[in-house]
């Protein structure tokens, strides 16, 4: 990728955050509750990415999503660690593609623990497909001005000689 001197790239210190070092099975096992818990931060980040069309302008929103995810898994660890570990282990070892349908019993125990100890119910089926309006405090970005190209080819003058087509027109039925 070629960049010019006018492109501002963030410093490494701006980009450095604590990473979420969890396996795919662990993230998949906690995904429904995590999505509900961090919905506000994630929607803010996605709205910023779509509106700004530049990931450099959404670094703080991305950091908020990562911080929310870390906070969620810390709460799960303090409240429902055994139940979550059993569920994540089942998701990891029951199939090659981390399918959830083989682990409904351990999921029920985990969901019950999350509801009782963290008051976080499992979202209903189709919850993340529902349309919602996200309210943000971030101002809407100004629309980019339409590009003006000063060296555009000028149109032909009106008195320019228009010769007939050399091999005739393919719209021969319209000439009558």
Automatic annotation (TrEMBL):
Q: Where in the cell is it found?
A: Mitochondrion inner membrane
**Which coarse location class applies to the principal site listed for this UniProt protein?**
mitochondrion
**What keywords were assigned to this record?**
Disulfide bond, Electron transport, Membrane, Mitochondrion, Mitochondrion inner membrane, Repeat, Respiratory chain, Transport
Q: Which InterPro entries match?
A: NDUFA8
Recorded family membership: Belongs to the complex I NDUFA8 subunit family.
* Function, in words: Accessory subunit of the mitochondrial membrane respiratory chain NADH dehydrogenase (Complex I), that is believed not to be involved in catalysis. Complex I functions in the transfer of electrons from NADH to the respiratory chain. The immediate electron acceptor for the enzyme is believed to be ubiquinone.
What's this protein's name? NADH dehydrogenase [ubiquinone] 1 alpha subcomplex subunit 8
Record the organism.
Plutella xylostella (Diamondback moth)
Q: What is the lineage of its organism?
A: Eukaryota, Metazoa, Ecdysozoa, Arthropoda, Hexapoda
